[in-house]
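Recap from last week: sequence in, structure out.
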Amino acid sequence: MKAITRRRTALNPDRHPDWCAGGHRCNLGEHRAGPLVVDVPGLGRALLTRVRAADGREHAEVTLTVALAATEPIARRQLLGLARDLGAVIDRATRASVRRAA
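Predicted structure tokens:
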């Protein structure tokens, strides 16, 4: 299973893709888009950023902040549910690229 893809086109380090935010976001030969922010007030926030590494591989970088319950048993249950749900999200997000590589 190869979920991270490599672009077949030649990479030109001086040329930014159309989606690249440029400026200080691009460093070490990688290109980064501006983050897509999903904000649910009082509950959490997700930042999704498209990245093309120096070797041409592209991936989505996801930063997630979620409010946890004040009581330990409930917070642990939330974290377990979150881990399970994130596994399903990763599976769904990579399904198309895995199918293409096969």
